[in-house]
Design goal:
The complex is a heterodimer of chains A (336) and B (236).
Chain A: E1 2-13, E2 16-28, E3 33-37, H1 44-51, E4 59-64, E5 67-68, H2 74-81, E6 84-88, H3 99-110, H4 116-129, H5 145-157, E7 163-167, H6 175-192, E8 195-200, H7 203-209, E9 212-217, E10 220-226, H8 227-232, H9 237-243, E11 258-268, H10 272-283, E12 288-297, E13 300-310, H11 315-325, E14 329-334
Chain B: H1 8-53, H2 64-79, H3 82-88, H4 90-97, H5 107-127, H6 131-139, H7 144-155, H8 157-177, H9 186-196, H10 200-228
Helix pairs in contact in B: 1-5, 1-8, 1-9, 1-10, 2-5, 3-5, 5-8, 6-7, 8-10, 9-10
The chains are: A alpha/beta (336), B mainly alpha (236).
């Protein structure tokens, strides 16, 4: 259990004070995959760094399993950090060390974990989990970005942490690699029960792996809750901006006499258009595509769409039921 | 004077001196240079580390007055011309070696002149380490000492080798200068025969050998720096 209570962080810069976080409170349950999403400059990276005290909060506290992180001594904090590891946008591997040595690194730091042979054995097991056992002797520069991030994940898991912090971990990767890295994180979460906190500016990342989400805007939590709930019924302006990429002008998509359904494609097998076409043919429901932003990755569909359906009868309810029945599709009515 | 430069008796004499005195001179130059560089690295590298980690935003901030003092001392030592420094450190040289003249004695001023230079070079190398890599180590619970020994220094090895090469070639140049106060080596031969006795041929031969030594050190250094760098693809 991670409890962030009334957290504030102020930076003193040449241009004056910048308040990066304002009175942020969050509670993250064990084993959750929790997304923190926001535009750049919203304070996401600062927030994630206060969790392991890489960034000391100006006010407020971070309590992990009852331990107040801010109250720990330097030595205790270093011990605690082995339970809360981190992966980064830039991977941050040791470029002069092999993949195996990179994964051994946190074990070597902790010192007490025995022999070199034992460390290498453990590192190999971890590289196997991320699918890179054959790259043990390779140097990071010889790997692709996605492979480097896999090594970084193996390294982050070496000390059997309880929490994995992901700071824009997929932002430097292409969509295909992004989804495979997210899949890996999800499977590790399922197998080990590790709590994952994902910082991102990409809606698709939150939609595809997170269970809960907090929307950070200007250093303030604008909205939080279950992903489906927040994205289906965005209440705050910041949430609406993220859910409808065109911003609040999205209200312009609402057509008088129509109700609007938001459809999220989250790795559905079928391409999006046939789904809408089939609905017209099979159900006799004509949907007006008001907005669509979808893309196909590995033959699967990701993205979202706004459908307008004429008011009258139970067409909207039937359309939602029809689309929710399809695998990897989430449909809900939205009100502007 | 120059018409006699290649006279047979001059050539014969030069040949004799080159055969009898040059091997020892080369050896003296090489060992003085390598020993001085080694001692200067032992002092300069830790200082370079302190310059980086000790500053306000470093991984182990030190008192501001201490950092200021360190910077002033390093700048001060670096601004004294080597010729003057050699004379200035006579008392120290006498205290350590027992005498102020001779090959071994010349190592003391060489080290004093070189370690601030090496501290600055090391500082430059260590600053090249990506701050995100250091943050990564901190996030995994590394102590400041572990970050220095397991991240900063290993990650900057290629750059440190390049800079050590710059240092050793510079120290080689200084070591030739120490011929003036009785330090041995090629510098002494160039001074004694070329400057004091107008035997230009011998001076030229000594200078050519110094050039060759610089080339040799530079080639070895560059080779090692490139070979050690695992960031270059398809290597290792």
């Amino acid at each position: 259990m991670i409890e962030i209570k009334n957290l504030s962080k102020t930076f003193h810069t040449a241009e004056g004070e910048v308040q990066a976080l304002k009175n942020v409170s969050l509670s993250i349950a064990d084993g959750d995959i929790f997304g923190i999403i926001g535009m750049s400059g919203a304070g996401k990276s600062t927030l994630v760094r206060t969790i392991n005290m890489l960034e000391r909060p100006t006010a407020g506290s971070v309590v992990i399993d009852g331990v107040d992180m801010g109250a720990l001594s330097d030595r205790e904090l270093r011990q605690k950090r082995r339970e809360i590891t981190m992966i980064f946008q830039g991977f941050n591997l040791l470029m002069q060390k092999t993949c195996l040595e990179n994964v051994c690194f946190p074990l070597k730091l902790s010192g007490l974990r025995g022999e070199k042979k034992w460390r290498e054995q453990r590192a190999l097991e971890l590289l196997d989990i991320v699918g890179l056992k054959d790259k043990a002797k390779a140097y990071p520069a010889q790997l692709s970005g996605g492979q480097q991030q896999r090594v970084a994940i193996a390294r982050a898991l070496a000390t059997n942490p309880k929490v994995l912090l992901c700071d824009e971990a997929t932002s430097a990767l292409d969509p295909t690699t992004t989804s495979s890295i997210l899949e890996l994180i999800r499977s590790i979460n399922e197998k080990t029960g590790i709590t994952v906190i994902i910082i991102t500016h990409q809606m698709s990342v939150v939609e595809s792996v997170c269970r809960h989400v907090a929307i950070l805007d200007g250093g303030v939590i604008a909205e939080q809750g279950a992903v489906g709930e927040v994205f289906a019924h965005p209440k705050s302006a910041a949430a609406k901006r993220l859910v409808f990429p065109e911003g609040e002008a999205m209200t312009g998509y609402a057509v008088p006499g129509e109700r609007t359904i938001r459809v999220v494609f989250n790795g559905s097998e079928a391409t999006s258009t046939p789904l809408i076409a089939h609905m017209a043919v099979e159900m006799g429901i004509e949907a007006n595509i008001a907005y669509a932003s979808t893309r196909t990755i590995d033959g699967r569909e990701y993205g979202s769409m706004l459908l307008g359906i004429r008011v009258g009868g139970d067409a909207v309810e039937r359309a939602i039921a029809y689309m929710n029945a399809a695998e990897g599709v989430l449909a809900e009515e939205v009100e502007f | 004077m120059f018409d006699k430069l290649f006279a047979p008796e001059v050539l014969e004499e030069a040949g004799l001196i080159i055969r009898t005195q040059f091997p020892l001179a080369i050896w003296e130059t090489v060992y003085v240079t390598i020993l001085s560089t080694a001692f200067a690295i032992v002092i300069g590298l830790p200082l370079g580390v302190i310059l980086v980690v000790g500053e306000k935003n470093g991984i182990r901030p030190l008192p501001a007055w201490l950092m200021r003092a360190l910077n002033v001392i390093i700048n001060l030592l670096r601004s004294i011309p080597f010729l003057i420094l050699m004379v200035l450190v006579f008392p120290l040289t006498r205290a350590i070696v027992g005498t102020v003249v001779g090959t071994v004695a010349s190592i003391v001023p060489l080290v004093i002149a070189a370690f601030p230079f090496i501290a600055r070079l090391a500082e430059g190398s260590l600053r090249e380490v990506n701050p995100n890599t250091i943050e990564m180590a901190q996030s995994l619970g590394a102590s400041p000492m572990q970050i220095i020994t397991q991240v900063m220094i290993p990650e900057s090895v290629p750059s440190l080798i390049s800079n050590a090469t710059i240092a050793i070639t510079t120290i080689l140049g200084y070591s030739a200068m120490s011929g003036i106060i009785g330090g041995g080596g090629l510098g002494k031969i160039a001074m004694n025969y070329g400057y004091y006795r107008y035997k230009y041929l011998i001076m030229v031969a000594a200078v050519i050998l110094l050039i060759l030594l610089v080339q040799l050190f530079q080639s070895i250094g560059t080779h090692l720096a490139v070979k050690s760098d695992k960031r270059l693809k398809n290597k290792g």
